[in-house]
Design goal:
Layout lengths: L9 H8 L11 E5 H7 L3 E3 L7 H10 L3 H10 L2 E2 L8 E4 L2 E4 L12 E3 L5 H16 L4 E9 L6 E9 L5 E2 L15 E2 L1 H13 L8 E4 L24 H4 L5
Parallel strand pairs: 1-7
Antiparallel strand pairs: 1-11, 2-6, 3-4, 4-5, 7-8, 9-10
Helix pairs in contact: 1-5, 3-4
Length: about 240
Amino acid sequence: MPLITPGADLPAMILRASEQVGGIRDKDVIVISSSALATAQGRIKKLAGVKPSPRAKRLAKQSGLEPEFVEIVLREADQVLGVAKGAIPTLKDGMLCANAGVDNTNAPLGSVTLMPEKPNESAEGILRAIKKKTGGRLGVIIADSHVQPLRLGTVGQAIGVAGIEPVIDCRGKRDLFGRKLKITFRGVADQLASAAQAEMGETDERVPAVVIRWAKVEFTEQPTTSVKIQPRKCLFSGVLKLGKK
């Protein structure tokens, strides 16, 4: 795809690029990089002119990050959870993420990209625009890079979903030996986001969107589930003290 710039018409760009795979078809799921969406939304912030606060300077010294970068992170984060070398773990829009999603990778020199605004609503808008041209049952996922605890390397996670149920409730279903599952949910949107990022890459690949075909998902006009849960329900929240002031 061409380089995405602020104000770009993402649905039109995706439709043109999708001709390489025979166009968008019924039951396709389109996964879009969060940085691509954020760039199209104009969510780019120049570091020049940002005045670091005393707290930003202190955290910058501890993390090894630029004070101006840290100041933007503090403005974007809902909660700072701690400091690590090269990153600041935060909560942002109900998600655990590094640096509140602020990223200088694939941002113009001297600038950073912020998390996209209203990713669920944005996914819905992109879905409507594409369906207007193609029809059929489709899904859209906005995917962001994510680092899992005690794992090396980034994987994908869905921060915005439209057109599909993002989570499948497996409780009550039986395993191979007839036992009923009691707590298992499948994060289908996260699974597809991670699969798509295997094609997107993280550097200069220029693959900001991926078409997933024949995925086993439930298409719906109005998803009833969410990939997000409250910190008190999180498996790790007691250990990490997420959501506590």
